[in-house]
Structures are given as structure tokens and as C-alpha cells.
Amino acid sequence: ISKGPVNSKSAKSTVVPPGPPVYLDLVYIPNHSNSKNVDVEFFKRVRSSYYVVSGNDPAAEEPSRAVLDSLLEGKAQWDSNMQVTLIPTHDSEVMKEWYQETHEKQQDLNIMVLASSSTVVMQDESFPACKIEL
């Protein structure tokens, strides 16, 4: 008896299977916002008031422009226009370009991007920070 590969996958698989949406307060976009792990289906299903967008590696496309565009496309399909806030962890060129090129659509979809220039100073160290009130 011959057996095929145990872990065979279809050519196109979605990270988040179709189904009813899940509502959360805060979501860290997986894998440094890389498009290999996050698509439109993710944002259609995983609905959050706040998304943390990490990644600061242009060579690895992190964060990915495709992921940011997927947020716009996914959010456009929500049944409500709830406020969504993006929290970038780095001041990347991809984020700046996306913000400028899609600003009008962001406003239409009630999406706000926080500036990433806030810092907290403790003793002799300073580090980036963001205050979120839920």
C-alpha cells in the first residue's frame, strides 16, 4: 500500500478559515505583519478595536503593504463602522507610504493610525510606548 504525503496542502490555503467573525479589543498582527500569514480573510474574521503592526525589515517585506491593504479590504466588509486604531511599532517607509496613499479610504472606514513617536523614560532607559484605554 502506498501512502501520499501526510501533510499535503492545497496550492492556496487561508490562514484563517472562513466562518463567523471574532471580536477582540487588541490584536497583534501575526509574524511581523508578513503577507505569508495574513490576508483579507484574517481581517474579515478577526475584528479588533486595535491592531499592532510590527515589523521593520524591508527585505522581508515586514510590515507588508499587502497586509495593510488587506485590512482596508477586510474592514470594508464589516457590518459596522466601528473605530479601528493601528499601532505601528516602527516608523517604516511602507507604513508611511500606505498611510499617505490610502488616507482618504482610512477615514471612510474609520481607521486611525497612531504616531509611533511616543516614548517612556524610566530610570536611565527610554523606549517606545503607547497608551490604550479599553
Outline of this structure?
The protein is an alpha/beta fold.
What does this protein look like?
The chain has 134 residues and is of the alpha/beta class. The chain has five helices and six strands; from the N terminus they run E-H-H-E-H-E-H-H-E-E-E. Strands 1-2-3-4 form a four-stranded parallel beta sheet. Strands 5-6 form a two-stranded antiparallel sheet. The relative contact order is 0.15.
Mean pLDDT: 82
Helix content: 25-40%
Low-confidence stretches: 2-14
Please indicate the count of domains. Answer: 1
Q: Can you write the helix and strand succession as a string?
A: EHHEHEHHEEE
User: How many H/I helical runs?
Assistant: 5
Apparent shape: globular
Q: Taking Cα atoms only, what radius of gyration do you get, to the nearest Å?
A: 17 Å
Numbering strands along the chain, what is their spatial order in the largest sheet? 1-2-3-4
